[in-house]
Amino acid sequence: MVFATETSSQAHVREDQPDTYSHRIWQARDGLLQSAVQSLAQSADGYLWIGTSSGLVRFDGIRFVVFNHESNPAFRDDSVWSMATGRDGTLWVGTEGGGLIELRDGRFRNYGRAEGLTNLFVRAVHVDRNGVLWAGTDQGVFRKQGSTFTRVDATGAIPAMNVYTIYESSNNDLYVAGSGLLVINSAGLRYFQSEESRADAMVGAVQNTRDGTLWVGTFAHLRSISPHSAPEPFRKEHVRTVPESTESSTSAAKRSDLHVSALSEAPDGSLWVGTYGDGLLRFKDGHFRWFRSPDYLADNNINAILVDSDGGIWIGTQNGLVFLKPTQATTLTIASGSPTNVSSVYGDPAGPVFLTTLGGKLLEATESELIPVTSIPGLKSLSLRAVFRDSRGVLWIGTSGHGVYAWDGSRQHHFSDPDFVRGFAESPKGRLWVVTDGGMWTYNQGRFAVVRGLSHWSGRALCADSTGVLWVGTDTGIERLRDGVPLPADPHLTPLDSTKVWSLLKDSGGSLWIGTRGSGLFLWNGSRLIHYSKTTGLPSDSVYAIVEDAMHELWMSGPNGIWSVSRKDLLKAADQQLFAPVIHSFGASEGVSSSQMSGGVQPAGSLSKSGDLWFAGSNGAVRIHPGGLPQVKKLSVFIEGIGIDGQQLSFAHTVQVGPNTQQTEIAYNAIRLTSPEQIRFRYRLENLENRWTDAGSRRVAYYTHVPPGRYRFHIVAFDLEAPDKTVDSFVDIVFLPYFYQTGWFYALCALSALLLAGFAVYLHRRYLHQRFEAVLEERNRVAREMHDTLIQGCVGISTLLEAASNVEFTFPQKSRSLIELARASVKITVEEAREAVWKLRHNREGSEASFMSMLSALTQEMSSRSGTAVSLDCSGDLQPFEVAVKHSLLLVVREAVSNALRHASARKVGVSLRTEGGSLKIVIADDGVGFTQSDDSHHHYGLIGMRERVNELGGELQVYTRLGVGTEIRIQVPVQLLTQEPLEVRV
Questions:
Q1: Which pTM was predicted?
Q2: β pairing state of 561-566 and 583-586
C-alpha cells in the first residue's frame, strides 16, 4: 500500500487572488425536485444526475427530468444517496432503504436481498477500473459477481463496516471509507481506524491528488499523507490546519477541526473540500480559499462534489445545487450586495472606473465592489448620467436636468446647458461635443453652443474620427458633421435610415462599427456598408456597446449578455459568406449575474487603464479580464426522445410510427453543463424538408401530419465559440400509411377496376346476347304461333276450297257445304290468330276452363273438321295449369293431331292423357303411313316447334314412327313444373 504525502509547511492564505469564479444556484423554486442534494454523478452522454430524497433527477444544464416510484417501479425508495457510472454507460443508483438500481439503455432494474444485498441502505457505489461494481451499505461492503453480491467485510481481522464512500486511487488501491478505512489491493485487505475520537474514526471522503498526496477527510479533521511516510493514515502529524477565513493569515486564526463530507480534484490540480457547517474549501498551489454562503453557496452543509468533464464544479448542498466555474467575468455591486442598475460605465484614462446608475448616482469601482464618489463636491443631490475626461484632464459630468459639470481636480464649473446628457466625445483638435435628449452641443472658448441644421434632433452616441468627421448616432439613423457643419447624406449609408443607432466605435484599423437596437451590427470601411445580424452568427440584433481590447478583439453587450469576436474574423466573414466567426458569449454561467445589459446612455461599455473591460448591467457592473479563454471541448449531439401524440416511443436507429399521427415531437440534446446557452442547433426532416431549420437553443422539433413515407431526422449542433466544429446525429423514422394508402392497395384498386370493367363488358355482352336470344326466341315463338294457328288454318281452308272446287259441278250441294265449312274455318282461323296475338301480350291471362275440357273440345273439333275419328282417353288426378301451360300443351297436341290427319292418311287418331309417377304423359298415336326423321323438311317446322314448346315446359318429347305402321308421339312433363307458381313459360 502506498500513501501520498505533503512535506511542506502548513499552507497559508494567498493575499493576491486574481482568480474569480462564477456561481449559479438551483433550488426547488428553480425547477429542482428538492433543494437538498444528496449525491451527484455525470454519465458518458454528459447528463448531470442528481440524487435527492424525493427521487433521481437528470439535468442537462437547462431542464430537470425526474425519476422515482411514480414513474418507475424499480424505485422501492425514492431517497437517492449515492451514484456511480460504468464505462459501458450504466448508471448505478444507491437508495436509502430501497436497495441498488441499475439504469442501462433507458431501463431500470432493482437489486435487493434476492441478489445478495443483505442491507438495502446503499450509501456508496463504485465501479473500479476492471468494471467490478462495489456497494457500501449501513452494514457491509459488497462486491458484485455476475448478477449477485458477495459481502467482503466482517471476515477475520476486517470488522463489519458502516460505509460512506468508496474511492479508487491512481495506483488501483480501493479505499472503503466509513467506520474506519479499508484498503483493498493486490496485497489483500488492510483495515485502519483512528483512536483519537469517534468522530475522527468516521471517514467521510478520500481523494488521491495528482501530486501523490492522499487526502482523507473524517468527521473531525482533514488529513494529508505523504507516499514516503509510514502507511498509517491516522497519525497526528497528518492532520491539516486551515485558515479560519480567506482574509486571515496569522497562525492564531488557523483551525484543524473540520467535518469533511466530500473531496474532489479539479483538472487544474485544485482540491475541493466539502464540509458540514463550514461550506467549501479550495486548496491550490499550497493555499486555501473559502467559499461560503451567501456569497457562493446556498448552504454551508455540503453533501457531494462533482467535477464535470468540462472542469465545472458542482456542489450538492442541503439547500440547493451550486455550480462554480472559473471565469473572466465578475459582476460588481454596492457593498450590501443589492442589485445596482448601472446605466453607463467609463474607464478613465487617469485610472478609475466611473459608473452612473439608473437612479442618477455616481459610483467608482474597486477590486470587489462599487462605492459612491465623494471626492467631487456638490454631486450628491444631482441625477448624473454620463462621465468623460478630455485631453486636458478635465472630468465632465453630464446630468439629467441639471446641466453639465466640469471638474479639473481642484475646481468645479457648472454649465446650465446642455441638459439631459447622453454622451461626450472629443475631436482630434480637442473640441468637446455633447449629445443630449434635445440635440447636439459643442464647447468652444468657455461656452456651449447648440449645433444647427441636424435632421435628427435627439442623439444616442458620438464618435470622432481622425479625419475630423463627427459621427452621431440617433434613434432615426446617422448624422455626420465636420467642424460643426452637417455633411450631405451619403447614399451608401441609406440602409441606416430609420434605425436606432445606440453605439459607435472607430477601431484601431480605422473602420467604424455601428451598433443598433434591433437591426444588428454595421461596419463602415469608408466605401462599403456591411451588415451583421443573428442570421450571420451574432447572439443578438441589439448592440448597446462596442469596445476593442488590446488584442483587437471586439466586445459587445446586448439585451441577452456580453460577447466577444475577433475583428479579423468579422472582416473575413464580410468577404466569405460561409465563414462563421468564433463568438465567445458571457452569461450567467460566466459570472454575469444578469444577462440583461444596459444601453442608450454612453458609454455602456469601456476599456479601463488596466486593460479590463467594463459593461453596464441591470444587476451591476460587469468586469472582464480579457485573454486566456478556455479551449472549447468536443461536443456530441444525440436524439433524446421521440413523442407521438403525447406518447414516448423507444427507438434505436429506426422508428416506425403508425398511421393517423397528428403530432410528432423529436427531442435532441448536446450537453455542455458549463455553458448550455452557448449551444445552437439546426435540423431538417430529409425527404420532407429541403432547407435547414435554425432552432437556436431550442431542443425540440415539432411536426404535424407528416405524410406516410421513410424520413431521416438530421440534427446538427455547434458551440458559438467554435461554429465551424459541427457535430450531427440522425434517426430514421418510418410513418406507416393506412392500408388504403399503400402501393398494394392502389394495385388492388387498379386490378379491381380492370376486373369491374371486364365484368361490365361481360355483363353488357351477356345482356346483348340475352336480348339477341330473346329476339330469336320470340321470332321462333311467333313462327310457331303462325304455324299452329294461321298457317294451319289457311292450309285447312285451302284444302276445303280445293275440295269444293273439285265437286262444284258434280256435287253442287257438297261444294256449297265445303265452301260454308271453309268460311267457318276462316272465322275460326282469324279468331285463333287474334287469340295468339293477345296471348303473346298477356301470356298469364286466359280462360278459366280446365285443360281437360279444352283438350276434349279440340279433339272433337278436329274430328268433325277432318271426318276422321279422333279419340281422347284421360285418367289420373290432374291439377289446374297456368293459362300459358294449357295453351302450349294444346298447341302441341293440335300440331301432332293435325300432322296425323294431313300427312299420315290416318283412319283414326288417338290422344291419351294420364298422370303417373309425378309426371303428365300425353300420347298421340295414329295408324297412318308413318315417316322417317329425314322426311321432316326444313320448310315444315311442326315437329321443331313441338319440341321447343315441350322443352320450355321442362318436359321431353319422343317420336316413334314406322313406315306403313303409323306414328306415336310421347310427351312427358313433370306435374310440379306445370303447377309451379309462377310458371315462367313464354308463348
A1: 0.69
A2: antiparallel
- As a whole number of angstroms, the distance between CA 686 and CA 549 comes to 44
What size, in residues, is the chain? 987
Closest CA to 636 of 665, 666, 673, 664: 673
Which pairs count as long-range contacts for 265-272, CB under 8 Å and 24+ apart, including other chains? 265/207, 265/209, 265/210, 265/307, 266/307, 266/311, 266/313, 267/307, 267/311, 268/311, 268/326, 269/209, 269/210, 269/211, 271/207, 271/209, 271/215, 272/305, 272/307, 272/313
Please give the mean pLDDT across all residues of the chain. Answer: 86
Distance CA 61, CA 57 (A): 12
The rounded distance, in Å, linking the Cα atoms of 841 and 839 is: 5
Split at pLDDT 50, 70, 90, the class of 725 is confident
Helices (H) and strands (E) in the chain, counts: 9, 72
Angle between the 883-903 and 851-866 helix axes, to the nearest 10 degrees?
20
**Residue 210 main-chain phi, psi, to 5 deg:** -65, -20
Four-point Cα dihedral 92, 98, 99, 101, nearest 10 = -30
Alpha carbons within 13 A on the beta-carbon side of 687: 12
Nearest alpha carbon to residue 234 among 259, 264, 261, 214? 214
Please check whether residue 551 is in contact with residue 564, taking contact to mean a CB–CB distance below 8 angstroms.
no
What confidence category does residue 517 fall into, taking pLDDT thresholds of 50, 70 and 90?
Answer: very high
Q: Look up cell 462596442; give the residue.
A: 546
Q: At what angle do helices 942-952 and 743-785 cross, to 10 degrees?
A: 130
**Alpha carbon 54 to its chain's center:** 29
Exposure on the CB side of residue 474, measured as CA atoms within 13 A: 20
Amino acid letter, residue 152: V
Looking at the predicted structure, is the pLDDT value of residue 342 above 50?
yes
**DSSP helix/strand/coil, 426:** strand
Residue 567: closest CA among 650, 515, 511: 511
β-sheet with 188-192: strand ranges across: 163-168, 174-178, 180-185, 188-192
Strand partners, 111: 100
